[in-house]
Amino acid sequence: MLEINTQLTNKIILVTGAAGFIGSNLVLELIRTQSPCTIIGIDNMNDYYDVSIKEYRLQQIESAVKDSDSTWTFIKGSIADRALIDDIFATYKPAVVVNLAAQAGVRYSITNPDVYVESNLIGFYNILEACRHSYDNGETEVEHLVYASSSSVYGSNKKVPYSTDDKVDNPVSLYAATKKSNELMAHAYSKLYNIPSTGLRFFTVYGPAGRPDMAYFGFTNKLLKGDTIQIFNYGNCKRDFTYVDDIVEGVKRVMQCAPEKVNGEDGLPIPPYRVYNIGNNSPENLLDFVDILQQELIRAGVLPEDYDFEAHKKLVPMQPGDVPVTYADTSALERDFGFKPSTSLREGLRRFAEWYKEFYL
């Protein structure tokens, strides 16, 4: 296991995408377990999905920080705004940066490519540049940059489980291409400027107050309205569903272990750079997933006990940009951090269903 070399208590931590699903849960976890710390959050609060969910997440943070020794500052803005990012770094001088801000979604990248280039490429470039210049004049402000990649980078790789040693040169969506680009950009900056960086390939993250564009959330909305849900690839898709608390625990552990700065035989820095998968290491068939979801929605009282699911299900072909299976090889995460996601799909969907009932009904 790696030794902790980056303490989070008494540190200034910048979390981009702080009103997002993973970002907000990470902030809550840091407040709960790493106080006192100073957390700066930035999010553009765009309307890609229901903004009220983002506002709810921020309210959860506001409530949590009142009972802690930590401080929380939220800035509404885009990481694609270079002047804003430079100002944040100059003003707050973060020691740890977690870049979770990104335009998410595979299918949306087919119809709205511009926002992916703006947020995922230009925005991430701005973060890298700000990290680079935190070293100006002999200062060493940023000790560790952690950023979100995605299981989408594996494209239609036939070999499973997906390993970070696999080649990922054939993305099947623009979203995947931008995430692979993030890894390449981070590697270049780690090499050129000796910036410790770690990329995390997340696998199908779900849970309470999640993203409404994700299948479990969209299915629930449609079933509640009596609409028909479409199950792609005729139900033959498998996904490595990963509960959000497991993702956050993984991110927190990674934040505390920055790659070491060492020089190679040529006297030049070896890039202090790593990439990990964070997934459940247990892919579930979509039909089984839908079956568990319907049971938990009935249990939570979101749907009536006599709901006719068969009348509201339709098996359809694969969508463009989708892949038939995602499956994470998490052996490196286990080796370096002694951690493996463990929340069962039923337990995670039960918590989601209970939250949905409380939030919407």
From TrEMBL:
Lineage top rank: taxon: Bacteria
InterPro entries associated with the record: Epimerase_deHydtase, NAD(P)-bd_dom_sf
Pfam families linked: Epimerase
Keyword rRNA processing: no
Assigned keywords, A-Z: NAD
Span of domain NAD-dependent epimerase/dehydratase: 13-265
Key word Transport present: no
PANTHER family: EPIMERASE-RELATED (PTHR43574)
Name the record gives this protein: GDP-mannose 4,6-dehydratase
